[in-house]
Design goal:
- The chain has 1 helix and no strands.
- The chain is rod-shaped.
- By secondary structure, the chain is mostly helical.
- InterPro entries: ZPR (IPR039312).
């Protein structure tokens, strides 16, 4: 009877050891995935910041052009069809 319990105990010990090794392996893989995700997140934030900066730069360039006080009373020779529709932007 004691030898049967020792066999079961030994089998459970090896199964437990295998589970611990598998757990360690999965933990290492998880850490690598976490590091990769963080690197990708930083890269995406940099790209978003660059796009936002470029957008702000283009808005500043457009805003630096003097405009008339009213869009309907344009004194230039351009057609009204070529002007942007402010109501359509919202």
């Amino acid at each position: 009877m004691a030898s049967n319990l020792e066999e079961v105990n030994a089998q459970m010990y090896w199964e437990n050891l295998c589970m611990k090794q598998q757990n360690d392996k999965l933990r290492r893989q998880g850490e690598l995935i976490k590091q990769e995700n963080n690197a990708l997140r930083i890269e995406i934030k940099k790209k978003i910041a660059a796009i936002a900066a470029a957008s702000r730069g283009s808005l500043v360039d457009n805003d630096s052009v003097p405009s008339t006080s009213s869009s309907s009373s344009c004194s230039c020779s351009c057609s009204k069809a070529s002007k942007p529709n402010k109501k359509g932007r919202k």
